[in-house]
Amino acid sequence: MFWKFDLHMSSQLEALLEKDDVTLTELMEEEDVLQECKAQNHRLLVFLSQDTCMQELLHLITTEPPAGLEETRRFKHPNIACELLTSDVGVINDKLGGEKLLLDTLYSFLEQPPPLNPLLASFFSKTIGNLITRKTEQVISFLRGKEGFLGLVLNHINTSAMMDLLLRLISCVEPAPLRQDTLNWLNEEQLAQRLIELIHPGKDEEKQSNASQTVCDIIRLSRDQANQLQENSEADPLLAVLESQECVGQLLDNMFVGERTESCVICGTQILLTLLEIRRPGVEGMLDVCVQGHERCVNSSILQAIQPHLTHYHQLLLDPPRVTPMLTSLGVLEVPLGNCRLHVARLMASLLQTTNTSYYICCNNTIYNNTVTLELCRLNTINILLDLFFKYTWNNFLHFQVELCVAAILSHSAQEQRPLVTQENPRLQQEPQEKQASPGPTLPLPSLFQDCRLVLRILEAWEENDKMQAEGGMRRGYMGHLTRIANTVVCSMEKGPVHSQIKLLVDCKGRWETFVDQALTEINRKNTVDLTFSDYQIQQITANFVDQFGFNDDEFSEHGDNIKLVNRYSYAGIYTHTLWCVCMHVQAKTAAFEACTKEKIQSFDDNEEEDIWEEREINYTTHTKSRTRYTNTHTFTHLY
Question: Which GO terms describe its molecular function (predicted)?
Answer without folding.
Answer: protein phosphatase binding; protein phosphatase regulator activity
